[in-house]
Structures are given as C-alpha cells and as structure tokens.
Design goal:
Layout lengths: L3 E10 L2 E11 L4 E5 L6 H9 L6 E6 L2 E2 L10 E5 L10 H11 L4 H14 L15 H13 L5 E5 L7 H18 L2 E6 L2 H7 L2 E6 L2 E6 L1 H6 L4 H6 L4 E10 L3 E6 L3 E6 L9 E6 L5 E4 L9 E11 L3 E8 L4 E7 L14 E5 L6 E4 L1
Helix pairs in contact: 2-3, 2-4, 3-4
Bound molecules: adenosine-5'-triphosphate.
C-alpha cells in the first residue's frame, strides 16, 4: 500500500482550476518530486497535502487514513520552505528543539534528540549560533533538522534549495540524498528545476496547468517522455512535425517535415495517419564529415551554422538543405580536439534508428 494516496484532487480559485483531478501514490521511503513550470499547481497541491488548504473534491490518504479535515498540526507531516522560516531570536539548537517542546517532551530527551539532529546535518559546532550568523546552506540544514526532529511520516519540501547559489545547491542536493537515505523518511519535494528533479528523485510527477502529464522514474521521464510537453520541459530535444506512414510491431515509419522518411521504435497506442512530432535528444545525434563511407542510413546532409564550446562538450547547430535546424551535443573527450567542425563545414547528421521517437499531439 502507498504511504500517501492522492485521489482525484481538484482545487479551484474562483473560476480558475489550479489542480485538476490529480491522482498520485507515493510509496514509503520514496523521494518523490512534483516538477513543473511556474504556476502549474505544485505549491497548491503541496499545501493541500500539508493541510494548509482544503481541496474542493477528492481524497488525501496517509497510511490509509483520510486527511481531509485534519488540521496541519495534527498530521504526521512537516513542511520545509525555501525561506527557511527559522525563529530569528532562537539559537540553532532552540530552533530545532521547538517542535519537541511544543509536543511536551522532557528536557533530557530534547537535549539528546537535538544533539543527534545537529550531528545528522553537520551542525554540531553551530548549536549556539543565531540564524543571522549562518550561511544560506546552514540555515537550510537547520530547517531540515527541525523538520525531521518529530519523526514525521512525510516531509514536504517546497523548493528548499531555490535560494542557494549553483555550487552550494549541488552540495546540498548530495546532502539531501544522504539525509533521506539515512533517515528513511518519505520526501515530497517540489521544484521547477528539471536537473534537480532528475538528480534527486526516485520518481517524478511532471505537472502542467494543474494536470499530471507523466509519473515515472527519472531515466524513463528523460528517455521515454509520454508527450510533447514532457519531452520539451525535460532537457533539450530536437522536435520535427511528423506523420505516421506505417506501423509494425517493432517500428513506426514516419514522414518527417524537413527530413523525409524516418524509422523509430514502435508504440502500441499509435495508428497510421497519427500526427505528432519526431523527437531526438541532441546527445543522440552524431555529426560526421561529409564522406561516402559516412553515408549510412539514416543520414541527412547539412552545414554547421553555429557551435557553442563549453569545455566538456560542444553544441553544434546543423542546418539541413531545407532550413531544418538540428542540434547535436558532442563530447570533447579527445584533448586538443575541442572543435571538430567549423561554421560552414558540410557535414552528415545521423543517429541510431532506435534513438528517435514519435510523440503524438
Ligand atoms: P511556482 O513554481 O511559481 O511556485 P506553482 O506550480 O507552485 O508555481 P501554484 O502556486 O500552485 O503554482 O499556483 C497555481 C496557480 O494557482 C497559479 O496560476 C496561481 O496564480 C494560482 N493560485 C495559487 N494560489 C492562489 C490563491 N490563493 N488565489 C488565487 N489564485 C491562486
């Protein structure tokens, strides 16, 4: 049984539907992420799980118990916010101890649990500092420790790393994974940063305009997006209008605008005549010198119209004869051979048959 069951939840603000009949199951011990662009309904859904807002319809079950109508402080759930929400006049230790004091725990127990929590988040030496004497990352660790001190069944994290700079954010992501592994509490995490979602989560729900578009493991979301929105939102992808010409159990034959006929892996739900897109990730596209031996199907001839060298990889833009532009990401793994091609070079663009995919509209 799932720890958290969200059943057909809908939330409206006036005429506007912010969360539209959403159902999600989160398993015990999972690091589950709600990912989507700004305004897609992530925070609204999180607030209903926490109990700050009530849904217009649907059920939220925790351990099989209906939470709708249960006030936030009576739910075995804690929320960590991006703004940390620490008490400025309390020390780190007092901030972490606060939930234990509120639940009437004895002094000795508070003392030992706070020390343990401080050590879990590497802040033992900072127990007597005040929040204004801490860095952003340290404040966020205090907020995590305070969130976990009462052993909630579920920790909700609302863009907790959003205020940190890129490098610190990377470090805190690692710490968050370690903390979750160590403590084993179920996390529901929200972010609009797709890399962060891919790096941290066991599973991701991709949201768009109040709906869930796909729930899957990170690698499946990236490699097998269920539709155009997910493909476009997660990472970079080349997309070309396409129509299905033929269907076999293993393959789809497509007519792709700007390319001609292309074969991609089969999909059970697709019929001849379906309209959609042919999608391929830049790192799946190969760019080769224009020579006879490189002309192995599928291949397309074009010219390099631009490139961007960023050290480890170079992104090439290749313009095909009919102005279709394809982006290819090439690793610069051979020292001294950073730029394989120059602007204007004639090249061949190719890929493995099974790396392209058809996504219906
Ligand atoms: P962000 O990443 O920017 O925080 P989000 O995905 O968390 O976005 P929500 O905050 O859940 O999005 O908002 C979803 C939609 O509902 C938005 O269009 C927002 O303007 C609207 N909304 C949220 N709260 C209210 C409210 N109290 N009254 C009216 N509209 C609201």
């Amino acid at each position: 049984m799932a720890l958290l069951e969200i059943r057909n939840i809908t939330k409206r603000f006036g005429n506007f539907t912010a969360v539209d009949n959403v159902s999600i199951d989160v398993k015990a011990g999972e690091f589950f992420t709600l990912l989507g662009p700004s305004g897609c309904g992530k925070t609204t859904l999180l607030r209903m799980i926490a109990g700050f807002d009530a849904p217009d319809s649907g059920q939220i079950l925790l351990d099989g118990r209906d939470m709708v109508g249960v006030p936030p402080e009576k739910r075995p759930i804690h929320t960590v916010f991006q703004s940390y929400a620490l008490f400025p006049h309390m020390t780190v230790a007092e901030n972490i101890a606060f939930p234990l004091k509120m639940s009437g725990k004895m002094r000795d127990e508070i003392h030992s649990r706070v020390n343990e929590a401080l050590s879990d988040v590497y802040l033992s030496k900072f127990a007597n500092r005040f929040p204004h004497e801490l860095s952003g990352g340290q404040k966020q660790r205090v907020a995590f420790a305070r969130g976990l001190i009462n052993h909630p069944r579920l920790l909700l994290l609302d863009e907790p790393l959003g205020a940190l700079d890129e490098k610190l954010r990377g470090e805190m992501q690692r710490e968050l994974i370690d903390l979750q592994n160590e403590i084993g509490v179920t996390f529901v995490f929200i972010t609009h940063a797709q890399n962060e979602a891919l790096a941290l989560s066991h599973r991701i729900a991709v949201m768009n305009q109040g709906n869930v578009e796909q729930i899957d493991e990170p690698s499946r979301i990236y490699n097998f997006p269920s539709n155009r929105f997910v493909a476009d939102f997660i990472g970079k992808i080349n997309m070309m209008e396409a129509k299905v010409l033929a269907v076999t159990p293993l393959h789809l034959q497509l007519s792709v605008t700007g390319l001609g006929n292309v074969t991609v892996p089969g999909r059970k739900d697709i019929q001849v005549g379906s309209q959609g897109i042919m999608a391929i990730r830049p790192e799946q596209v190969r760019v080769l010198h224009c020579s006879e031996e490189n002309k192995v199907a599928p291949y397309f001839i074009g010219r390099v119209s631009d490139f961007l060298y960023v050290g480890d990889v170079t992104t090439y833009i290749v313009e095909l004869s009919n102005s279709t532009r394809i982006e290819a990401l090439l690793p610069n793994s051979i020292p001294g051979r950073a730029n394989f091609f120059e602007i204007g070079d004639p090249v061949i663009v190719t890929w493995q048959h099974d790396s392209g995919q058809f996504l219906s509209d």
